[in-house]
Amino acid sequence: MRGGGESGMSTAEYAVGTLAAVAFAGVLLKVLTSGTVQSALSALIERALS
Q1: Distance of CA 17 to the CA centre of its chain
Q2: How far apart are CA 46 and CA 39, in angstroms?
Q3: Rounded Cα–Cα distance for residues 41 and 30 (Å)
Q4: CB atoms within 10 A of CB 4
Q5: Distance between CA atoms of residues 37 and 28, nearest Å
Q6: 8 has pLDDT over 80
Q7: Which end of the chain lies in a sparser environment, N or C, as judged by fewer CB atoms within 10 Å?
């Protein structure tokens, strides 16, 4: 519980949270666009459709 009746995130916490979310999105994008993952997804889709 926060003291002083303060609720929500402060500006600094919001900025750090936003940067963390952007970094996570970047890593996720790199993983999903890697050749290994694309090959696995393609094989999975082809198997599901056949």
Answers
A1: 12
A2: 10
A3: 14
A4: 5
A5: 11
A6: no
A7: N
**What's the rounded mean pLDDT across residues 43-48?**
93
Q: Which residue in this structure is represented by tokens 């993952």? A: 37
Question: For residue range 15-44, what is the model confidence (pLDDT) as tens digits?
Answer: 999 999 999 999 999 988 888 888 988 999
The torsion region of residue 8 among left (phi > 0), alpha (psi -120 to 50) and beta comes to left
Tell me the whole-structure pTM to 2 decimals.
0.56
- Report CA-CA distances (Å) from 29 to 3, 22, 38: 39, 10, 12
Burial class (CB within 10 angstroms; exposed 0-12, middle 13-18, buried 19+) of 1: exposed
